[in-house]
Known about the structure:
Elements: H1 20-41, H2 48-55, H3 59-65, H4 74-89, H5 97-103, H6 116-125, H7 129-154, H8 161-186, H9 195-208
Helix pairs in contact: 1-2, 1-6, 2-3, 4-7, 6-7, 6-8, 7-8, 8-9
Amino acid sequence: xxxxxxxxxxxxxxxxxxxxxxxxxxxxxxxxxxxxxxxxxxxxxxxxxxxxxxxxxxxxxxxxxxxxxxxxxxxxxxxxxxxxxxxxxxxxxxxxxxxxxxxxxxxxxxxxxxxxxxxxxxxxxxxxxxxxxxxxxxxxxxxxxxxxxxxxxxxxxxxxxxxxxxxxxxxxxxxxxxxxxxxxxxxxxxxxxxxxxxxxxxxxxxxxxxxxxxxxxxxxxxxxxxxxxxxxxxx
Length: 235
């Protein structure tokens, strides 16, 4: 349960400031509580006071972490994108992106990045304008991160059109895969074999044809030359 916090006063009394790690834990606790209430009561039927009360904190403390009730869910929506950014940063220059993601477990059938409350939340973003705005904001921020990673790999600027297109393609692939998986979990329709991992594979395979930055480096060091059958475009 989240706990009330107080800042250290000028005289040195009171608790020390929270660490960034502890703040992240509290933010995630708030996010999970908010989703549970949204599922139970709907967004319109849930107030910031309700979210705070469910955690045993004051509304004032809640608003220190988030500007509005819909934004409380942001940590749950950004977790999968943060993990993907880490995988992109660690992708060796001589390994195709799809191969690297396979090795790091991105395509595992039992991945839980879109499961439980996260699946409920993503499903609701298509029906609740306030949550949809947060979902799109999260992906907009992730796209900028992806552009920075691609720019670093290619030596281009993040604002370069080629970089921006690659980042947008990757970002869209991840968003669509997550939305499709959430839809399967919320309906009676049977999901395809492989679950979320297979959906991510299919989406990124399609997007990777336009992601030359992640093609294996050739002997000449051009950074291109992946087999098109692996889903990476030849230059």
